Amino acid sequence: MKTAAVTKIGNLRDPDISKRGKIELIDFEPHELGDEDVKIKVAYCAICGSDPHTAEGSFGPHVPQPLGHEISGVIEALGKNATKKGFKIGDHVAGNFLQFCGTCYYCQNGQQNFCRSMPRRQNPGMSDHVMWHESQVYKLPDGVSLRQGCILEPLSVAVRAADKVSAKAGQRIAISGGGPIGQLILQVLRLQGATSLTMIEPIAQRRELATKFGAQYVIDPVAQNVEEEAMRITDGFGFDIVCDVSGAPAAVGALPAITAKGGTLLYGAMYPVGYMMPFDLFTYMYRNELTITGLFLSPYTFPRAVQLIPHIDLAPFIEKAFPLDQVAEAFDVHLSGEYLKVLIRCNDLD
Ligand SMILES: [Zn+2]
Ligand SMILES: [Zn+2]
Fold first, then answer.
1. Which ligand is closest to the CA of 101, given by its number?
2. How far, in Å, from the CA of 281 to the mean position of ligand 1?
3. What predicted TM-score, i.e. pTM, was given to this entire model?
4. Ligand 2 centroid to residue 250 C-alpha, Å
5. Please, where in the chain does CATH 3.40.50.720 lie?
6. Are 17 and 59 spatial neighbours (Cβ–Cβ below 8 Å)?
7. What CATH class does 2-151+314-345 carry?
8. Tens digit of pLDDT per residue, the chain (350 long)?
9. Which ranges in the chain are annotated with CATH 3.90.180.10?
10. CATH H-level superfamily of 164-294
11. How much helix, strand and coil, in percent to the nearest 5, is found in the chain?
12. What does the alpha-carbon distance between residue 42 and residue 64 come to, in Å, rounded to a whole number?
């Protein structure tokens, strides 16, 4: 079996081509179907914003590192004890690439994202098949296509962001970063009753998309003063909730100042390792009493993401797909930013 993998660590855009990271297909020994496992023939696997970070070595310097965790597919086989969710051969499914043990301190304390014994089977999604534990698999609702279904995992992250900020209907909300996760968070929070919903994003095309998805205002952080615009939009109060998913050091420092007194600020991206942000504790924690929170994975959100997915506009997320053997080209197009999302078509299933 073939899978896409990082075979050389390095920035995929390094101007020095000899230092560039490399992504290509490698041979991969498929796992055996365990008694509680589901064998899924992969339809689509979307490229994640974190995949280029894998190439840069954020998850370790070893190679090869197989890729792919945003998948959809069709059930091809079921282990003899994979019976708890009523799956049938042929069901269209998506799910969580991580398997949580269910037994450790964190799993039993409502914090499965910190699970101490996640089975470390490498189960790459940019390949022909995946073998997942039944607990990781979710049936796609009727009317959601396999092509749309590979967005379930990123949507679960948006649901987690909504959980972390506990938005109340009517609160003023800003999102910093109009990539795929930012656009999904925007749609989820809009459904929850956000007002003065604002997207802060330097790329015009992505600001337009945010407007299409229901943003009432957009701010261009390069051409405009973010704080002035935010105060104009919110009558000088600032936003009750600010979500950063830009991950950009240039963007994150301005956000405490646009968060309202008593407001919540989510730093929800994968930031550069070791990056330090100066922070005025007196103003923001003492005087303004902000709540600052983070986001790591998406625990307990998949059942709700499945409920939500038919209500999310996914068309701009699934415009572009490449066959598996063109994975290197697909990453080039992903890095160009021309499309919100780039998909790998792993099998011809629809
Ligand atoms: Zn991802
Ligand atoms: Zn656990």
1. 2
2. 32
3. 0.96
4. 36
5. 164-294
6. no
7. alpha beta
8. 889 999 999 999 999 999 999 999 999 888 889 999 999 999 999 999 989 988 988 888 999 999 999 999 999 999 999 999 999 999 999 999 999 999 999 999 999 999 999 876 667 899 999 999 999 999 999 999 999 999 999 999 999 999 999 999 999 999 999 999 999 999 999 999 999 999 999 999 999 999 999 999 999 999 999 999 999 999 999 999 999 999 999 999 999 999 999 999 999 999 988 999 999 999 999 999 999 999 999 999 999 999 999 999 999 999 999 999 999 999 999 999 999 999 999 999 98
9. 2-151+314-345
10. NAD(P)-binding Rossmann-like Domain (3.40.50.720)
11. 30, 25, 45
12. 21
